[in-house]
């Protein structure tokens, strides 16, 4: 058996300070991913709820990740998909795009080069965790906008950035029924709910129960290339058992 039950996106309503569900133009990254898709509800056009194209967009990284109140771990994929969405939004709308990040994590083939490309495209990067998203205005420039309040740790000031659209880069979580699946297959889970492999280096797709293998984000937050590689490894391990002609339990 190969377990590939995946993950679930973090529920942005658990961080009410960012206004998801309260302000119409606060979206999760999953919703914007659907919006920029050619087969999506707008045919790939990035528009606000009233049909206007945004002139300024704020992307808040690490929503539901690297936070003692939600999940302490890094979800690995959020920085790169945030950069991808920033590129697509700027390309299709010409809007000014602001990325609010804690640390930029681009560990992969060509990832750092893509980050450099966005810097050249004029995407703004503000290092510091965003505090809140509000519609409370202090100046004429902020009227009718959403205001992201965040500390810019590079210059040591608190900034207020008015934007038309806010994108929340939600992290990855273990599925809610992971403990039930764990008991059914007699395997172990970490305290975050991810399925545990037999050994992180020597047996990364095996479990402590022979014949049960892991593939993909059910074992931990990971991106598509790592998921595909692990799926191939799990399939090979299963095939190695089948090729024996018999399986001893």
Give your account of this protein's structure.
The chain is an alpha/beta fold. The chain contains five helices and twelve strands. Strand 5, helix 3 and strand 6 form a beta-alpha-beta unit. The longest helix has 19 residues. The radius of gyration is 21 Å and the shape is elongated. The relative contact order is 0.18.
In short:
The protein is of the alpha/beta class.
Brief descriptors of the model:
249 residues, alpha/beta, 5-stranded parallel beta sheet, 12 strands
What are the SSEs and their pairings?
Blueprint: E1 2-3, E2 7-9, E3 26-28, H1 29-35, E4 56-63, H2 78-93, E5 96-101, H3 111-121, E6 124-127, E7 130-134, E8 146-152, E9 157-163, E10 165-170, E11 172-174, H4 178-185, E12 213-214, H5 224-242
Parallel strand pairs: 1-12, 3-10, 4-5, 4-10, 5-6
Antiparallel strand pairs: 2-11, 7-8, 8-9
